[in-house]
Write a structure and sequence with these properties.
This protein has one helix and eight strands, in the order H-E-E-E-E-E-E-E-E. With 163 residues, the chain is mainly beta. It has an eight-stranded antiparallel β-sheet with strand order 7-6-5-4-3-2-1-8, with no helix packed on it.
C-alpha cells in the first residue's frame, strides 16, 4: 500500500503556486511613481488630408445618370458620399431595371493610384485602378478584360416635377 507524504505534497504545491503566481515587479528609478512615461512626440498629419486624397471629390453628390445615346431618359440614380473620415467614397447605383451596385473608392498613397471595388446585386465584381488625367478620373481593370460596357453621363439629381 502506498503511503502519501502529505507534508511533501503541500510543500510542492506551495512552491508551485509561489512560482506561478508570484507578482512581477517593474521599477524605474528615472520616473516618480505618479509620472506618465515620456513618449517622443512628433506632429502627425491627419489621415487623408493631402490633395491626392481629394482628387475624386467632384464625384460626391446625388446624380441622375443617362446613357450617352439617350440624354433625355434617366437610366439610374447614383449617390456618392464620403466615408471613413474622408478617406474613401461610397457609391450607391440604382438602375431602373433592378440592377443595384455599390463601390468603394480610395486613394492608395503607396502605389499613387486610385482604387475602386465595385459589386452588384447580380454577382458582378469589378476591381479598377487609375489616376486623374487631364481633369478626368480614368479607372481601368488593367486592360485584361477591357471592353466598353457602358458610357454614361452624370447630371445633378432632379426631383420629379422640378425643372
Amino acid at each position: 500500500m502506498l503511503q502519501r507524504n502529505h507534508r511533501r505534497d503541500r510543500v510542492a504545491a506551495v512552491l508551485f503556486a509561489a512560482a506561478v503566481l508570484a507578482p512581477v515587479t517593474v521599477t524605474s528609478a528615472a520616473l516618480p511613481l505618479n509620472a506618465a512615461p515620456r513618449v517622443p512626440t512628433r506632429p502627425v498629419a491627419a489621415p487623408c488630408t493631402d490633395a491626392a486624397h481629394h482628387q475624386f471629390d467632384f464625384f460626391a453628390g446625388d446624380w441622375d445618370t443617362y446613357d450617352v445615346g439617350d440624354t433625355v431618359h434617366v437610366t439610374a440614380r447614383k449617390r456618392v458620399t464620403p466615408m471613413v473620415g474622408g478617406c474613401a467614397l461610397r457609391e450607391v447605383y440604382e438602375q431602373g431595371d433592378g440592377l443595384v451596385g455599390e463601390s468603394f473608392s480610395t486613394y492608395d498613397a503607396v502605389r499613387g493610384v486610385w482604387h475602386q471595388s465595385w459589386v452588384t446585386n447580380r454577382g458582378s465584381l469589378l476591381l479598377m485602378n487609375g489616376r486623374l488625367e487631364h481633369g478626368r478620373m480614368v479607372l481601368t481593370d488593367g486592360g485584361r478584360t477591357w471592353a466598353p460596357v457602358f458610357d454614361i453621363i452624370f447630371r445633378p439629381h432632379r426631383a420629379l416635377g422640378s425643372s
